[in-house]
Design a protein that fits this description.
The protein is mostly beta strands and 808 residues long. The protein contains two helices and 61 strands. The strands form 13 sheets. Strands 11, 12, 13, 14, 15, 16, 17, 18, 19, 21 and 24 form an eleven-stranded mixed sheet that branches. Strands 20, 22, 23, 25, 26 and 27 form a six-stranded mixed sheet that branches. Strands 1-7-6-9-10 form a five-stranded antiparallel sheet, with no helix packed on it. A hairpin with a 4-residue loop joins β34 and β35. The protein is globular, with a radius of gyration of 33 Å. The N and C termini lie far apart (93 Å).
């Protein structure tokens, strides 16, 4: 036997091969090529596995090979962003081996550039494992993906007819174009170029005509995409059997049918909960051509049709598909319905979708409330607000730096409003204490230190226009402690400065009222922390503040000590025989204007604080009351004993201690809340007049303005969504249909609670569980609107405002 030392042949790129675990076994060494009935004919196995969690310039993977007797050769090759080849020959009996690989890409290679890795193993008898393929990409991004969704490989086509091909592509660096190549009876090269804004996932459809003089045979279709960096990726090919003239007696076959989701999101499958305007996707083929596709909905099997639609085609396509938008007439939820789909061929033969048994397929669904909408260009909703004057929902899209605009009148998204970096919280400019919202929205740009002003009457499309960015000040906090000098033995004062992040997160609006009209607008807000904050606040600790926006936009008011306030009142006091004297300064965004918000030394000692209580865990929630008088704050984080606070704009400053805001919850109230709840917090809510606040935790805790616990709603934990009825004014709120709160559930439900007896009095069935916030609003038409974020997008439920309570 010819022996080669164990080793590797490396070509074309730097590589690190880590230590491999080897299992030894007994193997025969026989290179004979003669026919031998005793010869080993069991091929080895080989698997490539990606390894994540590495630096952006690293491509890491492992190769696992096994054989029943002994491996002889492993070959690994990479092409694309990294060029690399590796061969190892075994001279001892190795039956199981794992080889980890680490490839290093140049930093000049764009993120998302594909790397195709192939590997094969051969045993001592010459049996091969076949080739395993792994596609990875640089920059810790998922590799591009492109595939033909329809028709299926193995489908038939007929000369003189056409086929409709749907291609889906995904790319972390956005899809610039999708296309396909075909070989065989029809040679074609076609693509679609997408305009900005490009998507990370999209589809295209192309019609391939089979000429009447085409030669029957196998048509091979290969999809491809190019991302925004111009990189090309190719997907797996499909084959279509091109036949001669269509059979006259053929019957159409419905080969794909989706209810409630799309065939193009890789989740085509029948769902059991649907909405009244949900989608029905139908695909069918027939050698003589498809002339019609359609669906039928009944409330009883075999009964009268409640809803149906038919799509009429030319009959020239042997494979065709269509998306229908249902128009179910049901208004009571949940409702049971029965759905069937059908196809008709060009010869007039009609057939329903079939079960494997050959019987007609009839699907039972539960019709639920709401309409689930996917954001037009993707992204993630951070917060939402309804404006009754415009009858529109405004949703901050934190990943696309814009505010989405959803028009309730026609249930459609309008042009988004471009704002600042990473928009998070949203609120409206208050006009009066009756809850009237002005035509200006305020948006917290958490990726910067500004508040965007949106004029709802601006913009060419009528969606609104950002007209101003308010620059939030730099607030610097310091503590001053008296200690004994190590050198002189005399008492000295040590000043420690804490520089907190000024980036806004959640926001609420309150205002001072004069003659029934809002004057000074006080924006209450939390800040999003960063690891760069001063110790001991470098462990992601946020702060709470308010900003007088009315004063802040005038030059004379920028250095006024009542233009800004840093909430420190919850930290007043001392423990451990130590008390730090607080000093807070405000610097204008331009670094020029300056004001002292809390003086370092004062005769009353009201600025002695427990420093660690100044900041709050990430994330700190903020909501303001419907009448713009109060705000509630809730401390997020992953541990218990979260703090809650309230703010009442009407209480104002203490006249003898001008730096202490009497509207902020005092420390005794904050610690009492912790003692009564010991909760881990997921969200907050507040009713119209601020008389009730709710803390969403393991349950939902109802509080009064003094943070006294009034009752507990038995909501499920880990959900954030909770809001009061827009007209809720307290525990004895009237009429009874306003004495309600709405909560997200771990089930696909919105739960309805009575805020006086604290019991669940109803549910609203929806398609998917809400995983984000809930917003409740009342339209001018009298409809109640509930909005929540789900895994599929945003669910919007428009319902009659007729819910009431069964509690006495």
């Amino acid at each position: 036997m010819h022996k080669v030392p164990f080793g590797a042949i490396r070509r074309g790129f730097a590589v690190t091969v880590l230590a491999a675990s080897v299992s030894l076994g007994v193997a025969a060494c026989n290179e004979s090529t003669s026919i031998d009935p005793q010869r080993d004919r069991v091929p080895p196995t080989l698997t490539l596995t990606a390894v994540g969690g590495r630096a952006d310039t690293v491509i890491a993977f492992s190769t696992q090979a096994k054989d029943n007797l002994g491996l002889k050769l492993i070959h690994v090759q990479a092409i694309g962003a990294v060029g690399f080849a590796f061969d190892t020959v075994f001279t001892s009996a190795v039956t199981d081996i794992q080889l980890p690989f680490t490839l290093f890409a140049s930093r000049t290679v764009p993120p998302g550039t594909p790397v195709t890795i192939t590997a094969t193993a051969i045993d001592g008898a010459g049996n091969t494992s076949g080739v395993d393929t792994l596609i990875m990409a640089t920059g810790n991004l998922p590799p591009p993906q492109v595939q033909v969704l329809s028709p299926f490989s193995g489908s038939s086509a007929v000369v003189g007819k056409s086929i409709l091909v749907t291609v889906m592509g995904k790319a972390a660096t956005k899809v610039m174009s999708l296309g396909l190549n075909s070989t065989g009876p029809v040679v074609r090269n076609d693509s679609v170029l997408f305009a900005s804004p490009m998507l990370d996932s999209t589809t295209m459809q192309d019609t391939i005509a089979i000429p009447a003089n085409a030669t029957p045979g196998t048509l091979t279709i290969t999809p491809f995409l190019r991302d925004s960096l111009g990189q090309r990726a190719v997907g797996p090919s499909i084959t279509i059997n091109v036949q001669t003239a269509a059979q006259i007696n053929s019957v159409p076959v419905v080969n794909l049918y989706c209810v409630g989701n799309s065939a193009y999101d890789n989740a085509c499958g029948h769902v059991r909960r649907v909405e009244v305007s949900d989608t029905v996707h139908v695909e069918a083929d027939d050698p003589s051509g498809i002339s019609q596709l359609g669906y039928e909905v009944r409330s009883t099997p075999g009964g009268p049709i409640d809803d149906s639609l038919t799509f009429v085609s030319s009959g020239q396509l042997t494979f065709d598909s269509h998306n229908f938008k249902m128009r179910l007439p049901y208004t009571t939820f949940p409702t049971t319905a029965y759905i069937q789909v059908f196809a008709r061929n060009s010869n007039g033969v009609r057939a329903y979708a079939k079960l494997a048994s050959g019987l007609d397929r009839i699907d039972t669904v539960t019709v639920v409330a709401g309409v689930t909408k996917v954001l037009p260009f993707g992204g993630q909703v951070a917060d939402a607000l309804y404006h009754p004057g415009k009858d529109r929902l405004y949703l901050t899209n934190i990943t696309r730096n814009q505010v989405e605009v959803f028009n309730l009148a026609d249930s459609s998204f309008k042009a988004p409003v471009i704002v600042g970096s990473r928009p998070w919280g949203i609120t409206a400019w208050p006009r009066d204490r009756n809850g009237t919202k002005g035509d200006t929205l305020l948006v917290a740009n958490s990726g910067g230190t500004q508040i965007s002003y949106i004029n709802l009457n601006g913009g060419t499309s009528g969606s609104g226009l950002e007209v101003f960015r308010y620059l939030l000040p730099n607030i610097v906090v310091a503590t001053i402690t008296t200690t004994t000098s190590a050198t002189s033995g005399l008492p000295i004062q040590v000043k420690t400065v804490y520089d907190f992040s000024d980036r806004p997160q959640y926001i609420g609006a309150t205002c001072h009222e004069v003659g029934g009209i809002c004057q000074d607008v006080m924006l209450t807000y939390s800040t999003t922390p960063t690891p760069g904050q001063s110790p001991p606040f470098s462990d992601l600790a946020g702060t709470l503040r308010w900003e007088n926006l009315t004063k802040g936009v005038t030059a004379a008011g920028k250095s006024d000590s009542t233009t800004s306030h840093f909430f420190f009142e919850q930290a007043i006091g001392q423990d451990g025989a130590r008390g730090d004297t607080l000093e807070i300064e405000r610097w204008d965004a331009d670094g020029v204007g300056h004001a002292v918000l809390v003086p370092a030394f004062n005769p009353l000692g009201s600025s002695v604080v427990i420093a660690r209580r100044l900041a709050f865990r990430d994330t700190t929630f903020v909501r303001s009351s419907g009448n713009f008088r109060r705000s509630v704050f809730g401390e997020g984080g992953s541990v218990i004993n979260s703090r809650a606070m309230m703010y009442d704009v009407d209480r104002g400053y203490d006249p003898t201690i001008w730096w202490v805001d009497r509207g902020v919850s005092p420390p005794a109230d904050v610690t009492d809340f912790i003692a009564n709840t010991s909760a881990r917090m997921f969200g907050v809510a507040i009713n119209f007049d601020g008389g009730l606040a709710a803390i969403r935790a393991d349950s939902s805790y109802i509080l009064n303005p003094a943070l006294r616990l009034l009752g507990i709603l038995q909501t499920t934990n880990t959900n954030a969504g909770l809001d009061f009825h827009p007209q809720n004014t307290g525990t004895f709120s009237f009429p009874l249909n306003t004495r309600l709160a709405f909560a997200a559930s771990s089930e696909p439900l919105i739960e309805i609670y009575d805020t006086n007896c604290y019991l669940r009095v109803g549910t609203i069935p929806i398609k998917d569980p809400i995983i984000g916030p809930i917003t409740a609003a009342l339209r001018p038409s009298g409809q109640l609107v509930l909005v929540g974020a789900t895994a599929r997008g945003v669910v919007i439920a428009q319902l009659p405002n007729t819910f009431t309570t069964t509690c006495p």
